[in-house]
Amino acid sequence: MKPSANRSLISRFVRENATTMTLASIFMAVLAVFGLILGDRLLSVGTFQSIAFQTPELGILGLAMMLALLSGGLNLSIISTANLCALTIASVLQFTIPWGDAGSVLWLTWQVGAVAAGLAVAILIGLLNGFIIAYLGVSPILATLGTMIACKGLAIGLTRGNVLSGFPDPIVAIGNGTYLGVPLAFLLFVALCVFVSVVLRRSSFGQKVYLVGANEKAARFSGIHVKRVLLLTYALSGALAGCGGLVMMARFNSANASYGESFLLISILAAVLGGINPYGGTGKVSGLFAALLLLQLISSAFNLMNFSQFLTIAIWGALLIGVSALRSGTGIFDRLHLFEFWRAKSAVSENP
Amino acid sequence: MPKTIQRWTRSHEFWLLAVVIVLSMFLTAATDSFLTLQNLFDLLTSTSFAGILAAGLLVVLVFGGIDISFTAIASVAQYVALMIAKTYPIGWFGVFLVACCTGILCGLFNAAIIHKVRISSVIVTISTLNIFYGLLIYSTRGDYITSLPSYFREGIWWFEFTDSNGFPYAINFQALLLVVAFLMTWVLLNKTNIGRQIYAMGGNEIAAERLGFHVFGLRCLVYGYMGFMAAIASISQAQLAQSVTPTTLIGKELEVLAAVVLGGASLAGGNGSVFGAVLGVMLIAILQNGLILLGVSSYWNQFFVGCVILLAVSATALSQRRRHAGLAS
């Protein structure tokens, strides 16, 4: 391969992953600064394990939000979907008699059935969102605002605001267990990231989501069944929110109608920080992943420095504004033309 | 004249008003306590906070923007004003002055960032919500203020009178602020040149910019006004609660948004009326109040509110679609 071809490949990679690279650089910088201040307290296995424990909750909800954002919408009902899903799983587990003895295959099937019921509820809410948005023509923010309030109300009404707690070991292990030192929830999160990434990049459905998000009218005129794409997008978003609910209930070993409400706006923040265009059409899972790790790193470092968690959320907000300013004002990797400059130079040296 | 009536019966406000009237008539018939002065005054007092915020948010939505950070602005304004009032004898005027200045400053901060960074206002205000709220709790350590000045504790009561059962009634502080907030907003949007510019901006920002509108100035005014309203609402709420808790207001932002949108304001900008916003706020308040009076457990409150919102936005979207189809054929 000629060196110039090689360089253009690198430059293309950098251009396509500008956000991820920016965030990775910020991550390294933050890690270096806090590493110097905190030393071994930050750069320890324990810290990274705690980051890996905390990321999945917000991360899976972030994936759910991301799908809606990519299609040019927004899903405000992810948290209430997650809680309703968790409560469904919890009530199936608590109000049915376990089949078989603890540890038997039948006993495991019973739990899988409970999880399946929860996910079915989450998908139903997603389909309801998708139907209202795609077939009735309601703007996503309003439709999901309505389902958010209604689902939360349903969860509060059915449980009277109470907490359901105490689940069998395998469910609790999803939130608190580790495999080779890596939290199971993190493995689940990575698996879901890979799944969403493959769906978005490699399937025709994923490509259609991007097209609908970029320009709905153009997508419709080019023969894409926009309504069906939106319906499926919100169903998938609901299913992912349900997975988020499963992880939350497994971590707390309990479920409640109002867990995780602070995650709603933070999940939008994380997605936009990760380079997902809030108007739809562009963004990658890798960007979201980098953004989440960065947010958790800051949170963990501040925690070690005994700063309040509220200072952390203030810094998160400032970080989003700062990165957005960089992106819209200078677009560091775009405007510096770093790699184009190298390519031009090498082109000159090859043709004297 | 018939044409005016026809236009009126087709409007969003007409249908909303019809729903509110039918609901009120049903509640009057079904319960003894709905149509009593006591209940109506309680209703007005408890809606005050959400109502004043709705007035501010309406202006932002008409302008074509959105603000999520107003509950955080309200918390900050409330805390700063009553912190100062606790130590210095600044009186009513001082409390309002400090709160409003704080609120307006926060609003201007939003406007400046939206304008300079050029990212969508949802994203900016989600960030500033976290910034304002995070810094407030960090610097106050989440402490409550319970020892309020005596004049503030007593509030303002006008036109006091007693009913046959001996209950005292008055135009209280909250109701007064609510009415003033909606009147001011109505004057701003309908009777001033600036109001017309705000509608025009919401209708088509690029066209308005080319016409020579001072976009940044308008944006500052709109978000500053939202901050101002958040400050007034926060004082009303603090007086009602008789204390300042920095954490209680956060989380109400989407409910206020739902009320304004229920009143017919479009998220795309350029649309919405003060009357509609009043009706939207009223509908949700009466619905919640009515469910309690009917003996429905308050745990089910939100479920019904959510269903009403879903029904209303779906019905509006469907009727708009039908009208567009009618125009096309």
TrEMBL record, chain A:
Coiled-coil annotated residue ranges, if any: none
InterPro entries: ABC_transp_permease
Transmembrane region(s): 21-39, 51-70, 82-99, 105-128, 135-158, 178-200, 229-250, 262-280, 287-307, 313-333
Keyword set includes Transmembrane helix: yes
CDD domains to which the protein is assigned, alphabetical: TM_PBP1_transp_AraH_like (cd06579)
UniProt-annotated location(s): Cell membrane
Keywords assigned by UniProt, alphabetized: Cell inner membrane, Cell membrane, Membrane, Plasmid, Transmembrane, Transmembrane helix, Transport
A Pfam family annotated for this UniProt entry: BPD_transp_2
Entries under PANTHER family matching the protein: ABC TRANSPORTER PERMEASE PROTEIN YPHD-RELATED, ABC TRANSPORTER PERMEASE PROTEIN YPHD-RELATED-RELATED
Full protein name: ABC transporter permease
Organism: Rhizobium indicum
Automatic annotation (TrEMBL), chain B:
Chief location category: membrane
Keyword Transport included in the entry's annotation: yes
Cross-referenced Pfam families: BPD_transp_2
Entry keyword set: Cell inner membrane, Cell membrane, Membrane, Plasmid, Transmembrane, Transmembrane helix, Transport
InterPro entries, alphabetized: ABC_transp_permease (IPR001851)
Domain of life: Bacteria
Membrane topology, record value: Multi-pass membrane protein
Membrane-spanning ranges: 12-31, 43-63, 91-112, 119-138, 167-189, 256-287, 299-318
Compartment list: Cell membrane
Keyword Transport annotated: yes
UniProt name for this protein: ABC transporter permease
